[in-house]
Design brief:
The chain is of the alpha/beta class. The protein is built from eleven helices and five strands. Helix 1 packs parallel to helix 2 and helix 6 packs across helix 7.
């Protein structure tokens, strides 16, 4: 069976709005009713659907397999329900097979489709509106990293401080956690290899900023005043000042 291309963000509910969604999911565990989960990409819709019921999960792109699965299963999770084109054939099939549907969507459905398929709607808020969920997600992703790299939690270096990116909810935040881990785990040889690969690919495009900008930013953080920075780096102060002015939009 083709596996759906869905979110891999674990659903953690600490905030009231998210907890309400989780309570609805737990209630639906014991009810034989169709439900629609609405939320932006990466908020954990697919994981919440599996919290409701652990059954086959397919995306709209596998429409024919969805129809076939309805014939052999009493329940089914359908992701990206809003992108299904032949909605009438799907309705005909599940009416005939009496298959229970738990679906996810990023966009609201028309009233007619809602009336035809679903008895309950669960809305998941953005991760930026669930700040209480951020720290538990860090822990979850950190444990995930330990598993990926075959290490125990005690063997894995702690995450260095990082700036959270919640623009794509769990997706962008997971990237932040993984990037922070890799930054802390890099050795000099790794950094040199990455820089060499990047420079080889983009050589001739004016890449001096790759060296100057990180050096200046690190210098400000470590030494503060330009005079002290110039002395520590062994630079001419005027030259350093010109470089700082040149890269000021990025500092």
């Amino acid at each position: 069976m083709a596996e759906a291309a869905v979110e891999h963000t674990n659903f953690i509910a600490c905030l009231c709005a998210a907890s309400e969604a989780l309570r609805s999911a737990n209630l639906l565990n014991s009810l034989n009713t169709n439900a629609l989960i609405i939320g932006s990409k990466g908020v954990g819709k697919a994981t919440l659907a599996q919290q409701i019921i652990n059954v086959p999960m397919l995306s709209q792109e596998h429409f024919l397999e969805i129809l076939k699965t309805c014939e052999n299963n009493t329940s089914l999770i359908i992701c990206h329900f809003d992108k299904i084109s032949n909605i009438h054939l799907l309705k005909e099939t599940i009416s005939k097979t009496n298959t229970r549907i738990i679906a996810t969507t990023t966009s609201p459905l028309s009233e007619s489709v809602m009336d035809a398929f679903f008895s309950l709607t669960v809305i998941l808020p953005l991760l930026a509106e669930r700040i209480e969920d951020v720290d538990p997600l860090v822990e979850q992703f950190f444990l995930e990293i330990c598993t990926v790299f075959g290490q125990s939690k005690n063997q894995t270096p702690p995450l260095p401080p990082f700036v959270s990116d919640l623009s794509q909810n769990g997706y962008s935040f997971r990237r932040c956690v993984y990037t922070a881990f890799m930054m802390g785990a890099f050795k000099k040889v790794d950094i040199l290899a990455i820089m060499e690969a990047y420079i080889s690919k983009h050589i001739g495009l004016g890449l001096l900023y790759l060296f100057a900008l990180p050096l200046i930013k690190a210098g400000f953080e470590a030494f503060g005043p330009q005079l002290v920075m110039a002395e520590k780096f062994g630079f001419n102060r005027n030259r350093l000042r010109k470089k700082i002015e040149e890269y000021s939009p990025y500092l």
